[in-house]
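Hi all, long-time lurker, first post. I run a small reading group and we've been trying to get comfortable going from sequence to structure in the token notation. Rather than ask abstract questions, I figured I'd post a concrete chain and ask someone more experienced to write out its structure so we can walk through it together at our next meeting. Sequence below, copied exactly:
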Amino acid sequence: MATDTVIVTINSGEDIPPLTANAGPDKILNITPSKKAVYLKGSGTGKEPLSYKWYEGSRYIGPGASRWYVLTENGQHEITLVVTDADGNEANDTMIVTVNNGVPVVTADAGPDQTLIVTPSRTAVLLRGLGTGKAPLSYEWKNENGKKVLSSAVGWYHITKNGQHEITLTVTDANGNTASDTMIVTVKNGTD
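-- Answer (accepted) --
Happy to help. Here is the structure in token form:
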């Protein structure tokens, strides 16, 4: 009696590709009056059906493999595509959108800490603040008690009480966005 060996391969008929996500290449968005959005076009592979979700940082942008996304703030924006397969597994990919000519980020710089040695002719420090953002900008300086001491970028602040005093500059842009920075004024030979 002769014998033969038979190898049986069972194929389910499905060749499922590995789960992947592709957010697409990095992009540059040069904002103009007629162009304020970037087109996000991603793709994925895996067990169908696939779902797509876009995020900027932890902020949800929306669903779909592709979509328009409005950006107005200058700088680099990290955009992540999350692809979910039929079994709930996830893959993600990140791309960078660099925005030029958008709304400037609001910043405030109160300048370096200062020391005031009080004399009969010297009882004030010159506060020199800088700010950036969508013009016009407004400036407000407050002392450690929350009292407004100046309403311009540069000006004199009269102070004679000995000790360290925390002075905070708040810059507000035309859209109402704010940024703050703090500096310390150390007063010597003043009053207690």
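A couple of things your group might point at:
The CA atoms of residues 31 and 154 lie 32 Å apart.
The chain is about 0% helix and 55% strand.
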